[in-house]
Queue: 2 jobs
Job 1
Amino acid sequence: MELLINLTINGLSTGMLIFLLASGLTLIFGLMHVLNFAHGGLFAWGAYAGVWFYSITSSFTVALIGAIIVGALLGFITERLIIRPVYGDVVPQILITLGFMLVISEMLKVVWGPNQIAATVPPALSGSWEIGDVLIIKYRLFIILMGFLVFGIFYYILKRTKIGLIVRAGVINNEMVQALGINIKRVFLLVFMTGAALAALGGALMAPYSGVIYAEMGMDFAILAFIVVVIGGMGSFPGSLFAAILVGLAGSYMAYYVPDLSLAVNMIIMVLVLIFRPQGLFAVKG
Amino acid sequence: MEPVIKTDNLTIRFGGQIAVDHVSCEIPEKHFKSIIGPNGAGKTTFFNLLSGELKPTEGEVYLKGERITHLSSIERARKGLGRSFQITNVFPNLTVLENVRLAIQSREKIYFQMLRYFTSYKHLIEEAEHILEQVLLIDKKDAIASQLTHGEKRKLEIAMLLALDSEILLLDEPTAGMSLEEVPIILDVIRNIKEKGEKTILLIEHKMDLILDLSDSIMVLFNGQLLADGTPEEIMRNELVESAYLGGMYNDDLAGNQ
């Protein structure tokens, strides 16, 4: 029982980190039809920015906010310089975002050096609680709470605000939103910056969780995020949470019970979804 | 008085096929004009040229004296030209109320003031509900749009047009594909809009008898050409129109007479 609880907490916290990456990815893809391969790079930048801000201020709150700001700024630059010229052109999009991914990953080494950097859990969140026989690591619980908090905030924005309604309608049919006289391109920038900021927040939360950060860390998580986007349904925000938790839990259980399958299990889920429900579990398009 | 919409020799060719052939017409303000014609006469293409979905090969479109031929459909929508589609066009995964709210929002151009949402959100919903009452769809306001019947979707579409508050409504066969019971309801909705006297309305209809008493004037398109344009009485008496509708076999001769 203790084992199951621990595996579940592990799986949930990994799932939440994937969710932070995938939620931005799914909205960007759903709304703008852009497959952003540079998203993992933004995640890594968030991790570095978080560690750096933490090292100079010793405040984890500042570190997280700093990472969010860095992510949003990078998102702004990326949308304006990299994505905007290639809207509607899939092949150039893939090439340019993949290339940009490599560039920003290498830029990390230019700024912070090529070596791995250690990241520490802030004192207030380190340690664990012992409840009966169950050992609950505080920081993992913190990640789970942050994940649900972010989900709650964005779910509310999407569901209840004017901009949220435009984004949801745009995901369904962005030409028709334009036919109503709304300039959707202006919404693109905002969504892209938000997605980048969420990825950076994910990176900053990831750093103390794994203990070290390195320039290529974005790639590993980006692949999981793409799987989540496909499983959840491209453009579906709740779908990305559900699929991220599914992928996180599956990875965590499999790593313990059937270690040989732990890498394959997510691919298997994705293949099954693609065969039986190719539009994803939470399809958005009408 | 300046016509609200004016077309000057409006023409579009698709390869060798001339879909709309040198159509010139004027529509005065607050006028109700119907466009009729047999299948393939170019009615919808003509609408697409007015709304900016298509760009003409030749000729011009004017909105209140301003040349708008080069403007996109978005820019034209901003200038007050709203259209409904022959094929129903609503956001399937949003609720009925959200569909209408989106249209109101786009009219008010307040979509970037996220923070003002607490003060201005409520009146959006009230207005959306008011519009849904007008089109007799208020009972379904929380339904997901994809769950509506075809007729209800058309009503929703008209509600969205009303919400946009366009000065000019382009209605493309609003009764197409509707059940017999639904047709009079939609006609009533359109009649209500007309009787308020605030809008210029252009309506495409296939069935002439439906719109005779609604229209201030009727223009008849045939093989892309403007066959006749006049009051409903004049159109009823027009022999060319009669043969266009009845004598489908001799279409080519008829087009040559023009």
Job 2
Amino acid sequence: MNTVEVRNLSKVFVQGDTEIRAVDGVSFDIAEGEMLAITGQSGSGKTTLLNLIGGIEEATEGEIFIDGTDITVADEKELALLRRQKIGYVFQDFNLIPILTVEENIIMPLLLDSKKPDRKRLIEIAKFLGIENRLDHLPSQLSGGQKQRAAIARALINNPSIILADEPTGNLDRKMADEIMRLLIELNKQGITILLVTHEERYGDMCARKIVMSDGKVV
Amino acid sequence: MSYMLYLRRSLLRRPQRHLSLFVILTCAFILPLLISICRDSSAYGTEQMLLNLSKGSAFQISNADEADTAFFEGINGMSAPRYENGVICLSILSDEEWQDFWAFENYSEKVSDRIEKSGKANLIVTAFEYGIAHGIPDGSSDQSGLLILNLFIILLSALTVGSAYKSHIRRFSSDMGVLRSMGAENRQIFTIFIAEFLVVFAASALAAVLISAGVMKLLFATYLEVRDSEGLSWMIFKINPWNTALHIAAFFVVLLAVIVRALIKSSRESTVSAIRGDIQELEMKKNPPKLKFKATPEKSLASLWLSRTNKTHSSCLWVAVPIMTVFLFLFSYLSLDVAFISESPEYELMFSKNARYAGGFTQEDIDFVRSLPQVDTVNCRRDAAREIFNPEAGGLLIDVMDIKLTSPELHRETEELLLEHFPGMEYSIHNYQAVAEEGQELSTGIYLMLMFIFSAMFIFALIIVRMKLRDYIDDSRKTIKTLWTVGASSGAIMSSFTRQSAVSSVAAAAVSAVLSLALLLLATIPAAVKPSLDLPLAAVYISISVLTVAAFILPVRRAVRGILSKRSREA
């Protein structure tokens, strides 16, 4: 069964009189439990494609099915629900809310979903990611690697169908980047579907499948 | 625990932002509240003055003895006569009859008949309409004028605060984007920011009411209270809670509308742009004007900023110009008012006698006044006037002596001397000098009140302008760092940013001055008063212009210096 199905997807940005096709007629599937990498050079449309699948950018054409639901026709409320319950996002620059502690950042998706945080699960995730001693810290008190682990913990807390990771190693040093990749592969082994966007071939090769993008198209 | 946790943490961990909003809102409330308190105090003072004058009665018979009450017993529909210090008071029992013109005339005739029957020619009757006897002023144009002015100020202040709130919300766009990426609905984000607004609004409204009431009570106790005065309107400290609540409610409604609009606008922004939080990129014009080369790099850069990122400066102008205009107008208008009420009179006393009922002054009366050693000159005239409190009762005819004293300080003792020598109710003294002295004392209070208003308004404008300009420089951080890296000197960068602030600040100062003078001219047309720009007024205009220029330039210099010094340390 496919977790994600992308059909003939396009995204056009208009700048002045110029039209830029950031994503141009892309189609592919991601099976449940798969780890897929999207690679390509800077400006090839990888991040835009990820944002379209995550429902934080609106498609110009095409369809995206997540667990059978077409998100291109979903309204704002349905998209928000989808992001809360089925998608976990990991950004290159972490995007932790600076005024919340690590624990508060992690549980925020649950609070937005009116769910009571399960402390046992929180500790379990934090232990797995090695940040159990950093839960009371503010993001400004963490290293880059710790921030990214906190962001992964936040993506995991809602048991999503898929984790979308946009250059999760982009702001980290080599050692820390390898560590984050190891964690993502470990999560995938536990059955979590992962879509990874990276410009580093090395990390793309670590995934079970890889698609390469150029000028908005899958090549 | 709910997602409102974000709000709690935001209030506790970013207190400076919320504190700035609190101060902005508190200062914004102060002027409308002060005007509201002045309105309430003036209305209460007028009520007390009318009650004091009429003693709650329909008719007052002056020059009477207690025994004269017998002549006014048993008038059908009227109260029993009440004697008080040479005056007999009578009231009409039915309020409907009192308010009915013909019924009132009928009672006036009955009272006149009784006076005629008493055979006492010296009894003088004064009639009071229902409203006056119950402390309800006749025309309330001043009051409604102030209410309109206040609603205008509220609208202006709320729009200005709304502009600050928009900047505030812009600062949180990145957090909003992250929350949305986690699955927050717009409804939830709205709830967080509207709850934040409600908390800050409630705290500010309370603080503003306490500060305004405290300061005004103090000023009234020391300078501003006017009572027992013939020449000035009475002002007695009073706060009508309903009026205060009305002003706060009006403020709330306008501000809420502005904030909801800003939130709706931010909700339409793409989540990706919001997360990135690059405000300058978001607000950049799609087709920017071309770079114009000027004589120096500083000038070229300043012109570049002005053509591409000038939204902040124009919004600062929209904040500073109305606030400074309102203050300068208030200052110059009240200065004119103060000059008018505290001006030294030509004649210190006006001594008059009712000529219609009591036959006017005799030569003996005039000679007596002229013989007083402190009297310099006496000008005698006969004056016809309508009765102020009973205009239907026909004209008054009075004999007047305008008295100029050898020294103005002798006005009180001369007044007492005249009252002692001429004890009857047909005599009346108007002490111009006492009114001028009261006006002089009042002027201190008015200037202190203006200082308070200015402090509140200036802090209001200053914080908003500072917030906007600092945010602007913060958004230009990347540009500043890049310029520095490619070799621009710190001086050139600093000058390029301060130059555009200088242009905006001079524009703000000049436009405020011109607009306030134009408003002053308009406002003084009905009173046929010619305003003049004297030295103290010019000094105030110049000082405020200097402060405005400083308010625009200093935050920019400080913020740019902070970025540059950090950059130098990093290098």
